[in-house]
Amino acid sequence: MDFGLFLISFLSALFFAAGIVATQFGLRHLPGLVGASISVPTSAVFFLLLSPVTVGWSDWNPTSAAIFAVSGLVYPAAVTLLNFAANKRLGGDLTAALGNLTPLFAIGLAVMFLGEVPHLGQVAGIAVLFAGLGLITLARVRSHSRAGLWLLLIPVAGAALRGAAQPLVKTGLAGWPDAFAAATIAYFVSASTIWTVRLSMGPRRYAIPRAGLLWFIGIGLANGMALLTLYAALNLGSVTSVAPLVATYPLITYAMNRIVLRQRSVSPLGLAGIGLSVVGVILLLVL
């Protein structure tokens, strides 16, 4: 695998993990919808301000622009709300772990609609990586009571939508290969969608504490960079190459939670999953 593609995919995973960990702090100060109405517009404004020098507007492709806009309705708008809800009810570890399902949806749709077929080496690496991530997910699910298992549908839905967005955006990038354009348009639509949802929920106002505002601005920037680097990776490589590597963000979330939140308990099943996941990444790099 090309090292540049690996590095950009890893950066995307790193930013995703940072956003998930930071969300646990942000939700202590503000509810999810209010937080999303800060974080998503933060990224939208950031990309719009940079767009005169980062987006090749002269290469405008209306079909690709429409695809980027549709993807923005799904991700980050809907996925952000689902992830905030899952973080609040299930915590960052389990939310990230169930995000492991994202590449299953992404790769499956890429094979069906884009004709991407991974070679034998990729299949081996993906299989080992998924086995490891599956063990991590199982370890985290076991730590939650059966009474709340229906809540697992929240991050699973987020994983499905995030996975579906990847082949969709890949199609748009074929006509307009500009990751900044994709991120800018997607975030503009997402910010508009989330504010429409918030305003439709009624006139209720929240006193926004400084800490909550700063946390969600930081979350917005982290999630924005995660999306940008994901789209940059998709612009360079196939969905079947990028999705498994970006899906390693639960491993980084694990590490961050133990450093930042002092969460030290890791079950033997979780340790086995981490080991297998690392082996899977190595296989993807060398095969």
In short:
The protein contains twelve helices and no strands.
Describe what you observe in this structure:
With 287 residues, the protein is mostly helical. Helix content is 80%, strand content 0%. Helix 2 (32-54) runs antiparallel to helix 3 (62-90). It is globular, with a radius of gyration of 18 Å. The termini are close together.
- Average pLDDT metric: 86
Based on CA atoms alone, the radius of gyration comes out at 18 Å
Low-confidence runs of at least 5 consecutive residues: none
Q: What is the number of helices?
A: 12
Q: Which range does the strand content fall in?
A: under 5%
Head-to-tail CA distance between termini:
7 Å
Outline type: globular
Order of helices and strands: HHHHHHHHHHHH
| Number of beta-strand segments | 0
Secondary-structure content class: mainly alpha
| Main pleated-sheet profile | none
Helix content: over 70%
Secondary structure topology:
Elements: H1 3-26, H2 32-54, H3 62-90, H4 92-98, H5 102-114, H6 120-142, H7 153-175, H8 179-200, H9 210-236, H10 239-246, H11 249-260, H12 268-286
Labels describing this entry:
80% helix, 287 residues, single chain, 12 helices, 0% strand, mainly alpha
